[in-house]
Write a structure and sequence with these properties.
Strand content: 5-15%
Largest sheet: 6 strands, mixed
Low-confidence stretches: 603-610, 612-669
Radius of gyration: 34 Å
Helix content: 40-55%
Shape: globular
Structural class: alpha/beta
Strand order of the largest sheet: 4-5-6-1-7-8
Mean pLDDT: 83
Number of domains: 5
Length: 792
Amino acid sequence: MTLLLGPPSSGKTTLLLALAGKLDTALKCSGTVTYNGHEMNEFVPQRTAAYISQHDLHIGEMTVRETLAFSARCQGVGDRYDMLAELSRREKQANIKPDPDIDVFMKAAATEGQEANVITDYILKVLGLEICADTMVGDEMLRGISGGQKKRVTTGEMLVGPARALFMDEISTGLDSSTTFQIVNSLKQTVHILNGTAVISLLQPAPETYDLFDDIILISDGRIVYQGPREHVLSFFESMGFRCPERKGIADFLQEVTSRKDQMQYWARRDQPYRFVTTDEFAEAFQSFHVGLQLEDELRTPFEKTKSHPAALTTKKYGVGKWELLKACISREFLLMKRNSFVYIFKFIQLTFMAIVTMTLFLRTEMNRDSISEGGIYMGAIFFGLIMVMFNGMSELSMTIAKLPVFYKQRDLLFFPAWAYALPSWILKIPITFVEVALWVFLTYYVIGFDPNVQRLFRQYFALVLANQMASGLFRFIAATARNMIVANTVGSFALLVLFALSGFVLSRDDIKSWWIWGYWISPMMYGQTALMVNEFRGNQWSHSLPGSTEAAGIDVLKSRDFFQEPKWYWIGVGGLIGFIILFNIFFTVALTYLNPFGSSRAVISEQTESHEQTDGIGVGGSIQLTNNESSSNNVTSSAIQEEVQRSISSKSSSVTEATIGTISIKKKGMVLPFEPHSITFDNVVYSVDMPQEMKEQGITEDRLVLLKGVSGAFRPGVLTALMGVSGAGKTTLMDVVAGRKTGGYIDGNITISGFPKKQETFARVSGYCEQNDIHSPHVTVYESLLYSAWL
């Protein structure tokens, strides 16, 4: 088991992605990564290895247990079934009777396709997630588990799978040291017993956690400084002249010893002047260190592929069969529909309200069939109904985009193919469509006064069902293509505008110019509207002739807007809608399969900074460059500061006898803003929320779940206070309550500012709150973000 250490931006995540076969294909790469001598094109690295990201992406409406159970169901049991079969065969040969409890556990762990898996319960226990197993994961809009618990869910999502090679990226962020130790200790036992592989990146591991690892990889500036047994890492740096102090954690020492600002304090050769040792020098020295020589000797001999066990590398793309994957995705989609039932109830209420308004607007007692203009009013009623039914499908836009980040993560981890995700999103929404359209049609049809023939009632109902399904498929396709809410809303609104304009009602077929007529023929709304118009105006209520005409009134009304008059056009319209439904959902699936999320912003090193790092002087005698991006009026001040720094450094002796160097203070002119210190006291603060329904179903009778139980304390000016506690103890909840950030729940107790009751309007202007969630504008630089915040 290997610990990957390195300062921020040293390349830890990039290395783990490269080892797991998940590097962006747009990046230029050289070299090869092999597993047991096999290159990555000979097996499926995404299933052989599990990469655990440092970003927590989960569906907020699912509980912790449901999240892990879905992951286990999709990843399958791997080689656990084959291991059990081989174990049973050997036990029979040796006449060994297995322990009943172990036998039951292994059989349960080797059975795939289960909604509840014994491995899921085991991982929940190992990760300390039993206490919140039936709590929603939560997101920005839904209250859920704490940040540390969410980090453990991210880890558990991959541990429930059968992967033997684990690449874990900063899994300890937000966790207390005891929980981190428990997780790493469990991983160590798994790796050693099952002969697995684990490379774990930790930022600041505690000494007891550090001692659990076998090997250490230290990376800095994209180069490996040390790779080898944990026992020899200190001796390597001592050979370079650096010693770890007795009361200093080894992991912290390794993080800092390659840093320019921290390296000097560890210099141990008092008889020699200190000079900064670069990452390249460390890497070159390691090649001649005995651990580096041994590593090079081992790598010189390639691994024999014949020694690799067939079950070690996975060649199947997915963990279970296609039918099992589809069942798992259907089960999850149905669960999410139940959890989001408010959305569908709101849509029902919205449609009912609009139907009532429409009934009063197009009331049959006020409408006649004695002229073409009166027929146009009926046309307007049909067009308005079609618009309402289509607009009701626009909610698919936001709901699809909200789930895309989790989908992309699980797709790239080969949990399931895109079609297994797209089919349930379409099929399970069909019953909802039948109910929505039924509300509209059965409320408005006879009140407006459409043709009373029941056959034509159900024909209109069927055509509107297809129109709603077509619109839902279109909006899902737009969401999967745009992948961003702003872009999707823009494209979606433009698509509706084009559909309306070219549907044949806003502009009749005669009025559309010849170079735009192709848009009329490919407009799905045209087919739906044609079917509805033909269905209504070919009815018996429109069979009479208008004054001065020999044809039926319905025919004249259809001709006035250049609609087709033949009855067959109802079925042509229905067929066109069915074709567009299938086409849009196929496009939706294709977009999910081949499109990736928009790339995140990458840090760019300017040429000036890069050349400065390469030519920077070594040690105290080096030059310090101060850059200023302000206007030319500040150049004098900048150059004066630089000269002062140069004089201060040059006056120092070149031989350093102490491990620390005096700090050069550069005083700048400014003013002192008036500031009045305040003390914050909170007495017997109790914070509670309504008891979750899942916990009530387990037999809990209380109405409220208490999260803060009579907490008291004070924050004084001039005193730095550390708020400590294990993950999930309530640290964030307490700070949210004191800062006035809680918008729900019940708060009892007293909070005072310098003895006065806290008024949130005033307190918000004099307080700052740094949350653990990093929410920033992705398209501005760090400097621009800070500058904008300072302006505010």
